[in-house]
Structures are given as structure tokens and as C-alpha cells.
Specification:
The structure is a homodimer of 518-residue chains.
Chain A: H1 5-13, E1 18-22, E2 25-28, H2 29-45, E3 53-57, H3 62-73, E4 77-80, H4 87-96, E5 101-104, H5 112-118, E6 124-127, E7 138-139, H6 140-146, E8 160-166, E9 174-179, H7 180-195, E10 201-204, H8 211-222, E11 226-229, H9 235-245, E12 249-252, H10 254-262, E13 276-279, H11 286-295, E14 300-306, E15 313-317, H12 324-329, E16 337-338, E17 343-347, E18 360-365, E19 372-373, H13 377-383, E20 384-385, E21 388-397, E22 403-408, E23 413-415, E24 418-420, H14 422-430, E25 435-445, E26 449-458, H15 466-474, E27 485-489, H16 502-510
Parallel strand pairs in A: 3-4, 3-5, 5-6, 6-7, 10-11, 10-12, 12-13, 13-14, 26-27
Antiparallel strand pairs in A: 1-2, 8-9, 14-15, 15-16, 17-18, 18-21, 20-21, 21-22, 23-24, 25-26
Chain lengths: 518, 518
């Protein structure tokens, strides 16, 4: 983690939002970020090296926030000076942490001469006030105007972020060394604390060997809450256990939610204790969601997107987007916005961010990103590049910053030069009343390279013809995305985590052949 | 941070709460923690060294949770085995991460022989099922029964916590290395995300050089929210700025809250946008809190306790304890429970935890604890001992885990051998209708060693005699705690953070003398 992360995220997601308000002066995140990147460059030119302290002696203003972010962006360390101190105390602290640069405002100009005379290392003064820059000082505005913005120096984690002097009860003040991790942890712990559901029992119905269920158990222990466990997903035992243990929270995958809702004895159990249901692995279909909201109106739904390499959660789509408005706008199909502390980009093959709305690969940074693959340096290097985890997941981000996972990149079907994302076709199929479960894969096709092939499990007692299914899809999605062929099966192979094993579905079709997209 | 932290906290705060529910078998946190500490010892005896992998091949059960915590408690690394795998895949993963111990349940016993035959390093099998332990295996229950509990091995941070195999799209599965920090960050980020107030503007009225305001700015940036700034606390400018910028959040100290409420033009401003007010540095008096709740009924109050060395937040007392019930029970005076991720103990001079309700020193561990004091190894060693930060703050913890700060240890007054905590006396004084601000210090006394001395600023237009003040106190607190002398002042010296500078108040009385408690 790194303390400029939120600024990067704001520059990405909401550049026109007002970042600072100060006595009638307003700066957007775009303006603020530009000033920060320029100030960072100016400080570097003035000699601020990595881990070098830069001090500020000033009352509060928007410039104080620029100082914070500018120093961190440039790789330096804050030393905010106590505004009640006398010149000797200030000089002591500047000397103690060997500060070379001091920002100062109008209120403290009268102390500048005394500081310059007494300090062991006479600091460069940067005037951050509202008037004319005094002789012998550099002006903050001039520095920002004349310096080009620089790249973030990329400090974080255990790197030092600030030295905060604290009054000693005896002797001289002591400089408390706070790292990026320290400050981040303090904030995130406090925020997490107020979000926890108190006195909750979670039910582990998804397999605990899998990262999603294990991470949930980790959090439940961290919060000091309780665990109910069943050996494996079984709709009846889930319902029984919710009723008996008064379960409040549950993690499932959409196929399990569907099985739960369709259980013939669903109505016989009292599951009114259930408050929150998280699901992952794939978006939920509108049909299943509507049924779920109808049958469990008291439950809040969260869609978590993640992967083992991210330990695992990357983004969460909150309950409000699952309600009627979210269903109408299509926001229920989003994987949500990147979580606090995680920086996500959607990039092209060259690692460049693509325009909003265009599909690319999700890459991300954060304290949650794995250390690597055990004993596999090459595979690790292929996905961890300059601190960014390359997920292999295809997605686009809309203008509000919501992520929409279109597919695993490797599941993308290339048919006649067009990219077809299976998830989109599957969503269309799932809306047909006879479809209980479905999967869409690419199979070899002489003419198109790959053809879109659908595998469908029908609901008990329901049926449809191949032509009915294709006609239904044509009403919802473009012709080239519609399945060329539809195959009915009694079941589909599922992974331990409840994901449909497309690799297994594809294998028989591709024996002896090579897919262009793998 | 370390993933057994929450378990330690539960053992401390709620040992009798049910931790695990499994098919009618219930274990409290006390029972669960005891089993975990014994299992950890058994695993160590079987050869589990620090960083060594231990695997489990089982359906979900309460034993799976014991395995997680037991391995971590003993210093090892989890390798949860995919329950859908064939013997060759399982053997590949055990070999790949060099596992020496495998827990197995009834469901997978049929695979044990194949695994034992093929694995490069034949694992020790621990039977974690519900029947008789098969020949050639050790029984989980027997191991737990016959092994003494061991101390937590103390792994955490960047130490490896789990190797989670993820299906390769090509080739063999890869073991994703998740550290304690990775798993902790994933959980805490997700929780923090749902706690953030969206589209909020915070007002920086407390000085930004101080760790509390700076940490708040850090969080506001992390969340991508907006900052309003004023140069320094001024009641009128605070009110004006809330109205003009529609400020939602504000951090103050109680003396500032009081000044705000007492401003003659308080009612002329529209501050209805204000939603949350955090305060720190000292508990709020009941009188100020009641006034605040009366005049700003829409505002939620949070009391944050912290110190620079903790970057800074340690605990938060939430809004519900500030409402009528909390005021009646006295819970409003608490500093709250330790935040998520922070392990707090109240200890005696020998570092031993004191019984609930007894006063001791607060010590704590967490990712928020500073790296040390800059260039001061001795001072650092004096407060950072074996990973625990010694705060010098005196407090007691009640049975529910709520912390009550009684005083800085060094502010404790020792009078006639009795310990008097200034805060308690100040709380009594503050309830007198004529008292606007007060401070209680120990001054030299021939007979008692120290005498309790009160300094009082009267409210404008109000007055009281020394004897009236003392009589008022005698009604509220024990006689030996009551001020022997009361001195009226027009103001009290405040630190940059708004704390009353008791050191300055005490100094003239103690010139040339030495206090027993310093």
C-alpha cells in the first residue's frame, strides 16, 4: 500500500470532483493532482531524495494538503512542524531529522530568520503564503508553474512516510517514525471496525479449501464472530442450518443460490435470520436475482470479484445495485468498484490504460496482492510486473468507475474476427424460462475459426428446442454473438468452488487442435 | 498484523461466546482456543517448523477452522487441498510445496493409500474424521488431548500464511503464496470499503501538523473524498464553513466542541449538513455532550483514543454510546473497544495483564504501531518491547472490553499513598454549572507528598467560590480525590492539538523539586 494510492484513484475515477475547499478557493482532483506532481518535481530538483525529510511550518490550508501529497508523490518524508513551538524547538527538530527544505506561510515568516541563523543545515525556504514571496525564498506558486509534473516515486509499505514530533515528558521531543503501512493500517482498521456486523454467525457452505471461503473465515475470526459449518453445499442442509443456528451471513456462488431457491422445501424453513449474502465467481443472472430478492426480501446481496492471487477480493458491488433501480440500469451485473486500498486499471496488450467502456485486462496493486507462485519464478514474473498483478480477466470500467467483468480473457471466443465474451451470451441464455444452467464456449469452425457453442441444462419439467433458444438470444444480443449450436445436457461439470469447468467442456472439441486464444 | 490476532482478542474479551457450530457440536472461544494451542503444539512435535506447510484434505467442518488457526498459531503455513482433485494432482501439490503433514477426513480416506505410495515425502496422516482413527494414522482428538497448549509462534506481516493452489489454464497448478498481510489486507479493505461515507466533505479545523488531523486527511484521500480547510480553529469560521461548503464530517477536541456550542451566533448558521463528529485527546464531559446532542441532534459522535506512536487510532467509542442510554450507563466516557486489527492489553508494572476493572498501562500491537523514534534507539526500546507499544496511558477495561482511560500515567497524582487520576476529578469539576474548563494537577504537599490542585476557568457571567466547588466535588467523588485547593484563571494553556498543557501548569509548583511520578 502507498499513501498516494487514493489520489491516483481519484484522478482516474473522478478528476472533476472538487478535492480542496479553502476560503473560496476550489481545486478539482485534476488540478490538485497536477499541482502535486509538479510540486514533487520541484522538491526533487531542490534535492529531495528518496526518504528525505521535508518540513512545513504553517497554519492549515489547501497548501498543507498539497505538501502532504507532493512530498509522498516525490518519494520524501513529511515533518510537519508544531505550530506552538518556539524557534529553538523548531530548530531542534529540523536538525534532529536533518531537514533540507521548509515550507512556511505568512503566519510564521517572522520566525524564518531565526531558524535560518540557528539551524545546522540552513533549509531552503518555500513560501506557501497568500502574498508576495519574500526575498531569499522560493515561491510555491512559481515552483508549481515552472516545473513539469513527475511520475509518482512509488514509495510505500514499510517506507517511512512521516516523522511526527511528540512532546517528551522529559527532555527533548521525539520524532515518531510512521510508515506508509502504519498510517494506512490505522485508517483502514478504524473504518473496518465500524463496518463489521456485530454478533453475527456466518455459514461456511462453500468449500473452505477455496480462497473465498477461507478469507471469509479469516475475517470472521478477526472480528471475533462465530462460524457455522456444513460439510459441503447441500440446499436442504443450508436451509436447516440457517434456521437452527440463526445464521446471518452466507457466501455462495450463483449456481448455489439458484439451487437454494429452487429447493422444493424452501418455504418450510424459517430463514429470517439471514441478513447478508455474498456471491462471487460469476455475475448473477437477472432471473435468479429477481427470484432471490422476491423470496428473501430481508437479505442484502454483495457481489465480490476476486481471484486467489489477490487474496482474493478486488471489488464489491454493494446491495443498492441489486435493488430494482440497479436491475433496470444493469448495474447489478457489475463487479462493483475497486475496494478501498486497491488500485485497478483496465489495460491493453501494451499495459496502457484503455478508454472507459472498452474491454481490456484487469491489472491491480494493493497490499492484498500475493507474494508470488511457490517455486515458480517464471510464472510469477509473467503476472507480477512492476508491482501490478495481471489478472487475465477481461473487463471494462464505466464512467463511474464500475467494473464489468466480460470474461476470462482466455474464455473469449474469436469468431470471424469478432470478439465474443461468453458471459454476455450466457446472460442472454439464462433469461430463457427453460434454462437452469448454461455455458458458452468456442468450438472449432472451418469458416469462422471459432463458433459460439452453448451447453444448456433445462429446468426440471421445462424444455425448449435449439431453434427456440437461438431465437431468444437473437432478441437480446447481436447475431454474431448468438450460439451457432445448442446442446442440451443433464448437468455441467463444476469446480470445487462451484464454477463451471469450461476447460473440461472445451477439451473434447479441441483435441489435436490449437485455439488462437488460450 | 497476524492472523491469530482476532482469536487472541476473542479469548480475552469473549471466551464464553460460541465460536464454532457444526451439526450440533458447539465450541466456545475458550474451548476452541485451547484446542488450537494444543493442536499447534502437536504439529510442532510432529516436525512443523516455522514456515513449514501443513495440508488438509477434507470437507468443511469445525476441524477445518481448528486446522487454520492451529497451523498459524504454531508458526506454519496452510496448504488446503482441492477436494475435487485426483490422487496424482494431490500428490503433485504436496510434493510441490514439500508438505510433511496431511490432515484427512472420512470422505477422503480412500485416497490415503494412493497418496502415501506416490508422494515423494510420505506425509504423517492426521485423521480429522468422526469415527475410529485408522491404522497408520494419528487421531486429531488424541493429539489434542495428550499435547499441552503452546504459546503463539508470533508469525505475521510478510510471513507466509497459505499456499493456495490455483488451476493452471495450461500445465500444472500453481501455488499462490498469500502472506499474513495479504489476507489481512484483503479482508480489512473490503470491510473498510463498506463503512466509508460517500460524497462527504470533511473540515480540517484541528491543526494538520498533528497526527489526528493528518491521519484523517490520509483517509479522506484514500476514500477519494473532499477536504475543506480553515487556517485554525475559530468557532465562527467553523460555523461559516460548515454552512457554505456543506461540511459533513469534523474532527475536534472537546474544548473546541464546547467553544462551538457556546458561540453567541451558533443558531444563526445552518449546519444541518454535519453528520459525524469525531473527537479525541480527552473524554467529553456529560454536560458538553448533552448540550451537543441537544443542539446538533443529527450528528453522530465518535470518540477516538490514540497517540502519535499508534499512527494514531487505537479505539473508537461509537455513536450509540453517546445517546441517552450510554450517558446513563457512563459508557459515553469510554474510549471504546480496540479497533479491528489492534490487540490491546492493560498490564501492571511487570507486563502482566491486570484483572478487568483494574487500572494499568495500555499496551498494544498492530500494523499501525510506529517503526520507532527517529535516531533514538534507547527511547524506542523503552516503549517498543517484543512488538508491543507501551503507551504510558493508564486505563481499565470493563467486562465487555470497553476501555476507560483514567489518565496519562505520568499525570497520576499520588496523595497520601492513594492514586488519584486527574480525569476523574476533572469530570466531577466539569459538572459544576459555573465551570467552563478545568485541569487537575498534583502539587507538592508536606504532609501528603502531593496534593490535588484544581485550576478552573469560569463560564462568562458565572462564578463560584472555592468552597462551593469543593463541596460539589465531595458529592461526586471520594474525599481524597477532591481538590485541596482551587484556583481560578481566565484561561488555561493549550497545546497545538487543543490539549491542556499540564506540564506548563505544574512547572511553577515543582521548580527545584522532583515528583515521584514523572
Amino acid at each position: 500500500m502507498y499513501l498516494t494510492q487514493g489520489l491516483h484513484r481519484s484522478l482516474q475515477l473522478q478528476p472533476e470532483r472538487t478535492a480542496t475547499h479553502f476560503r473560496g478557493r476550489y481545486r478539482t482532483y485534476r488540478e490538485f493532482g497536477d499541482r502535486v506532481a509538479r510540486l514533487a518535481g520541484a522538491l526533487q530538483k531542490l534535492g529531495m531524495r528518496a526518504n528525505e525529510r521535508v518540513s512545513m511550518l504553517a497554519l492549515n490550508s489547501d497548501h498543507y494538503l498539497e505538501y502532504m501529497m507532493g512530498v509522498w508523490w516525490g518519494g520524501g518524508v513529511l515533518n510537519p512542524v508544531n505550530i506552538r513551538w518556539s524557534v529553538p524547538e523548531i530548530v531542534y527538530s529540523l536538525d534532529d531529522c536533518d531537514t533540507g527544505i521548509l515550507l512556511i506561510d505568512d503566519h510564521f515568516l517572522r520566525m524564518a530568520e531565526g531558524i535560518a541563523q540557528r539551524a545546522r543545515r540552513k533549509p531552503v525556504f518555500i513560501y506557501a503564503g497568500e502574498g508576495q514571496t519574500p526575498a531569499g525564498m522560493l515561491g510555491l506558486e512559481a515552483l508549481i508553474a515552472e516545473t513539469a509534473p513527475v511520475e509518482d516515486a512509488g514509495r510505500g509499505g514499510n517506507d517511512l512516510a512521516a516523522i511526527m514530533y511528540t512532546g517528551g515528558t522529559t527532555g527533548m521531543p521525539k520524532g515518531v517514525m510512521q510508515s506508509h503501512l502504519n498510517l494506512w493500517a490505522s485508517g483502514v482498521q478504524r473504518a473496518a471496525d465500524s463496518a463489521l456486523v456485530r454478533n453475527s454467525i456466518t455459514l461456511h457452505a462453500a468449500p473452505l479449501f477455496h480462497t473465498a471461503a477461507m478469507a471469509r473465515a479469516v475475517m470472521q475470526f478477526a472480528a471475533g464472530e462465530a462460524h457455522a459449518v456444513i460439510p459441503m453445499f447441500d440446499a436442504r442442509e443450508v436451509l436447516e442450518t440457517i434456521e437452527r443456528e440463526k445464521v446471518a451471513e452466507l457466501l455462495l456462488v450463483p449456481t448455489m443460490i439458484h439451487a437454494l431457491l429452487m429447493h422444493p422445501d424452501f418455504d418450510k424453513y424459517d430463514i429470517s435470520s439471514l441478513r447478508r449474502m455474498a456471491y462471487g465467481a460469476s455475475p448473477i443472472s437477472a432471473a435468479v436475482l429477481e427470484l432471490a430478492m422476491d423470496r428473501m426480501p430481508q437479505v442484502e446481496f454483495f457481489h465480490a470479484y476476486g481471484l486467489t492471487e489477490a487474496s482474493p477480493v478486488v471489488s464489491v458491488n454493494p446491495p443498492e445495485n441489486h435493488r430494482e433501480q440497479g436491475r433496470e440500469s444493469g448495474l447489478y451485473r457489475s463487479a462493483g468498484k475497486p475496494c478501498f486500498g486497491i488500485h485497478v486499471k483496465v489495460v491493453d496488450d501494451h499495459g496502457q490504460e484503455v478508454p472507459r467502456g472498452e474491454v481490456g485486462e484487469i491489472i491491480l496493486r494493493g497490499a492484498n496482492v500475493m507474494q508470488g507462485y511457490w517455486n515458480k519464478p517464471e510464472e510469477t514474473a509473467a503476472v507480477l510486473k512492476k508491482g501490478w498483478l495481471h489478472t487475465g480477466d477481461g473487463a471494462y470500467m464505466n464512467d463511474e468507475g464500475y467494473l464489468f467483468i466480460v470474461d476470462r480473457m482466455k474464455d473469449m471466443i474469436v469468431s470471424g474476427g469478432e470478439n465474443v465474451f461468453s458471459a454476455e451470451v450466457e446472460n442472454a441464455l439464462a433469461r430463457h424460462p427453460a434454462v437452469a444452467m448454461c455455458a458458452v464456449i468456442g468450438i472449432p469452425d472451418e469458416r469462422w475459426g471459432e463458433a459460439v457453442h452453448a451447453l444448456v441444462v433445462a429446468k426440471p419439467g421445462a424444455s425448449a428446442t435449439e431453434e427456440e433458444i437461438r431465437a431468444h438470444c437473437r432478441e437480446l444480443i447481436a447475431g454474431y454473438k448468438c450460439p451457432k449450436t445448442v446442446e442440451f445436457r443433464s448437468e455441467l461439470p463444476l469446480s470445487g468452488a462451484g464454477k463451471i469447468l469450461k476447460k473440461d467442456l472445451r477439451a473434447p472439441f479441441w483435441q489435436g487442435r490449437t485455439r488462437a486464444v488460450n
